[in-house]
Amino acid sequence: FLLKALIDEIRPSVYVEFHNWMFKNVDVIYFMNYLQGRKFIRSMPSQEVFEKRWRAILRKKIFSTPGLGFKKYCKENFRSVSVCLEYPWFGRTPADVKTLGMQSIVALGRM
Predict the structure, then answer these.
(1) Which of 84, 73, 67 is nearest to 32 (CA)?
(2) CA end-to-end span of the chain, whole Å?
(3) pLDDT of residue 103
(4) What digits encode the pLDDT tens for the residues 45-95?
(5) In sequence order, what are the beta bridge partners of 57?
(6) What does 16-36 look like in DSSP terms, one character per residue?
(7) Rounded to an integer, what distance in angstroms lies between the CA atom of residue 111 and that of residue 36?
(8) Angle at the Cα of 81 from the Cα atoms of 31 and 69, rounded to 5 degrees
(9) pTM
């Protein structure tokens, strides 16, 4: 109930999921809107130092379906845009991943 209360207070315009990706050299973004995905990638610092390349995937089925849990709640109540970011930890330290998460939030804020 605490998380729901926080979501109700924030009223997010973007619902974000962060996951560890299974392929070690690919950072992936799933967006419902391809143009938003490309804009996000252009806003992100290069990840070449970690030998990563981007892959943007447009999978409407992932985000157009009703969904479950907080994703569904945010979409229905706040019309939140759904984003799923998949970052492999391979070749990154915990500090690198923390920085990447912050960079992702900043890039999403620019959209």
Answers:
(1) 84
(2) 29
(3) 94
(4) 988 899 998 887 766 555 555 567 888 899 899 998 888 888 998 999 999
(5) 30
(6) EEEE--SSTTEEEEEESSHHH
(7) 7
(8) 100
(9) 0.76
